[in-house]
Design a protein that fits this description.
three-stranded antiparallel sheet; 28% helix; 10 strands; globular; Protein Transport Mog1p, Chain A; seven-stranded antiparallel sheet
């Protein structure tokens, strides 16, 4: 779990730095739901045992985060404001609810204004996962964080989806749409 927390921390740092760059993107595009639904990227990991679909504006950024660890996969949009981080860590005997509570405590220690939206068990293809959704502060701006923790093929899987949260409902819907494509074999 310490390795997973370390990589999750690295991911949050990357997203925080991207949010803090204060870059004025004059060619930024407006989020268009119709265009997004047409353009999607399918991702397959663990030799097909784990798959999910991302919006088309997100691409593999794993080699750009300063680490060559093959157990962390980073997908982000061109601004870095939207990201999905998948960490395949060592298996653990601890319960998923315990791990999610520990993650919540770690997030709260970094952000005392953390707002937990949900911390609940979910089922993905008959397997139990724990989902922790929260509003965190990233560079002074709100970010919606949805983390799914589960056990896949003797690995502890942590999937974190981070999106801008100026509109919490929209961010929550976008995170759910990614989680709903998660397939575990």
């Amino acid at each position: 779990m310490q390795k997973a927390a370390k990589y999750l921390g690295i991911g949050l740092l990357v997203i925080g730095l991207a949010a803090c760059d204060n870059k004025n993107d004059s060619n930024a595009t407006v989020d268009n739901g119709a265009a997004q639904s047409q353009s999607q990227t399918k991702v397959s990991l663990l030799e097909g045992k784990l798959a999910f679909t991302l919006p088309g504006d997100m691409s593999d950024q794993s080699g750009k985060v300063g680490t060559q660890a093959n157990n962390m996969h980073v997908y982000a949009d061109s601004t870095g404001h939207k990201a999905v981080i998948v960490i395949l860590g060592d298996n653990t005997t601890e319960g998923l609810d315990v791990l999610a509570q520990r993650l919540e405590d770690q997030q709260r220690s970094r952000d005392p204004d953390l707002q937990v939206v949900t911390n609940k068990a979910i089922t993905v293809n008959g397997q139990t996962f724990q989902q922790l959704d929260s509003i965190v502060s990233s560079g002074g701006k709100p970010a919606y964080s949805s983390v799914a923790i589960g056990k896949v093929d003797n690995h502890l899987l942590t999937m974190q989806i981070t999106l801008p949260a100026e509109n919490q409902q929209s961010a929550q819907t976008a995170a759910e749409s990614i989680l709903n494509t998660l397939v575990v074999k």
